[in-house]
Amino acid sequence: MKRVLLFLFAAVVAAVFAGCAPFTPLPHPIVPEDAGKPVKIGVVLPLTGPDADFGKRTLRGVEMAALALNNGRGISNRRVELVVRDTKSEPAEARRQVEALFKEGIAGLVGPYSTNEALAVKSAVETLMIPTVVPLATNNDLTEGTNLIYRTCFTDKQQGEALAAYCWYWRKYLRIAILINQDKDAVYSRGVAQATATAFTELGGEVVQMVEFRGNFEEFAKKLNDLVSYNPQAILVPAEPANAGKMVKYIRQLGYRGLLLGPESWDDPVFFANCGKDPGDCAFVGLYSDEFDLLTQHDFRDEFRRRFFIYPTSCEAQGYDALNMLAIGLGNAQSVEEFNRNMLQIRNVPGASALYTMKPGGGIDRTMFIMSVRPSSLADEDPEARLGQSFNMQRIYQMNQD
Description:
Layout: H1 2-17, E1 39-45, H2 52-70, E2 80-86, H3 91-103, E3 108-110, H4 115-128, E4 132-134, E5 149-151, H5 156-170, E6 175-181, H6 187-203, E7 206-213, H7 217-229, E8 234-236, H8 241-253, E9 259-262, H9 269-274, E10 282-286, H10 295-308, H11 314-330, H12 336-343, E11 349-350, E12 355-359, E13 363-366, E14 368-374, E15 384-391, H13 393-401
Parallel strand pairs: 1-2, 1-3, 3-4, 4-5, 6-7, 6-8, 8-9, 9-10
Antiparallel strand pairs: 10-14, 11-12, 12-13, 14-15
Helix pairs in contact: 2-11, 3-4, 5-6, 11-12
């Protein structure tokens, strides 16, 4: 504590003699006198509870990044020490663990996994001034009003804009329909649905139906029958993997043969196990594609395969990139301003998932993928995703202006 107080006093004096330039000291800065000590990085992910599989997969990627950093220069020539905590898939527990990690002296944070957990820790991150990179929580509001939280994933709004652009520009569709989950905790589903509806309407398209649903399947089945009768050219199904797969299969059983669209949550083995052997014309926006022609992506995939004997998914790749981007931000950073300056130097930086460009206020422009779902060629295997399109949001904005 004495060292931190002395550092704060020195920072204030330095700011005065520098013409009162902004300088907000980090509580646990990267300082020269700690050169022999490891940099503690907190990791908060669901390792038990409903989201445990996603959390464990993301942690694998974070651990791979830590190993790669420690085989190189670490962070500011200091080794990285991961301090991992389980959120138990509960937002309140995620916040409690972030507060506990701060007391352990972490210099930065990776996580949490879900939107609900990330929103729950936001105020704690701001109050405690913990530089944070979130790998998979896509909620628009997460980075609003803070200069301490960045992300390696795109936002719900960007997903909606990408899906709308795919329908409008690539498929030349004029009429789509959208399903909206009204369950209390389905913030993600509603965010993507509303963003897609707004973006498609602004392009000139028509949303012929927006069908709300909750847990009552009988009621939902009737609404789906009504929806199919409108014969939209595409239907957006923004749901978590298991339910999305079942909904795709059921919609096909109703006789609908148009395009079925999904958000990045479709990119999961559970979806492909539930969507039926031949789900028809399906596409979703993805965070990761092992067909993306990027050297860092190929190196990551091959190293992961050697280590774990399976290929990585978006969870592992996003965890890997989140720690690497945080490492760039923390490099020799002793203040919030220095952390932000470092983050904004990330322009077209290659990672395991994408090319990354960070923007002020936690914004991001990164590679996005439209993945097509293809039926398996083998009877005992599930369908698979193949790369259809890759682009960044700047390309979409340019198309909108032309």
